[in-house]
Amino acid sequence: MRKLLVLALVGLVAQLIDGSLGMAYGLTSSTLLLVAGVAPAAASASVHLAEIGTTLAAGVAHWRFGNVDWRVVTRIALPGAIGAFAGATLLSSISTEAAAPWMAGILFTLGAYLLIRFARPLRTDRVGGRLRGRFLGPLGLVAGFVDATGGGGWGPVATPALLVSGRMEPRKVIGSVDTAEFVVAGAASIGFLIGLGSEGFLLPTVAALLIGGLIAAPLAAWLVRIVPAQLLGAAVGGVIVLTNARTLIRSAELDGPARPALYALLAVGWLAALVLAVRALRRTRRARAEAAVAPATVAAPAVAVGVPAEASDAASVGEVPADLAATGTPTPR
Fold it and tell me: Which pLDDT score, from 0 to 100, does residue 323 have?
């Protein structure tokens, strides 16, 4: 019972992180399950089976709030399902000894990517337009394969790529990626079922992760308003890097002073990423504050350059004079 409660807490924490960042449920859950001693294939299989329920709930919620672009979902989900099925089949066919460093290496790389990604502001000011299928298809294929073989990675691969394109609203990026993940998780689960059989799924673990994730889903909406995603992403990336570095160091059989020196170097890198994340967050907030003040600064001299007083008074209370409205002047905010 104590172990199941711990696993439920793992699912709750992972869903809180995923709901705040739009990614990292699989990364966090798989990393913590590996630390607990679960075999790599069983950890990935259990996480993906639990994700069927959590992604379904998340997808329905995003759909109801209008956060889903179904064109993007269909073009990224099907290749993602193919990649996830192939990745699950590959992970099921290799031994636990060989899979452990492979999976730790993927998780370590994705954790380092989170550190880099959240240590600097993400540009979303590129020219808009429709995302092409020749971009979405390969992206889904790669993200699905990495997700199944690493026990996570769909969000960290797909979400930043769509955000950087600048052609979708951030809320629709997260909603579409989360909705498509339902198909990806299902395909990965089928691949693990064929490769491992039903005994490959740790059903008590699945149930605990699912319960924790469902409890955390509404709390994540509150957490995202309290904790800045910039800081949370850098913090989670550091935890994933340090945790999976232990497996890689053991596999490389590093002993003596090299091991603590490597841990110290990684810790310094994590601290540097957190400092950069704080600076990026401050710059972003400062830019938003200046952008909010700019319209008021431009509108202030209006009376001095000949704008009628009644027009200025109407603008101050949110009304538009008839002569301005007739010419199509935007309504003052």
Answer: 39
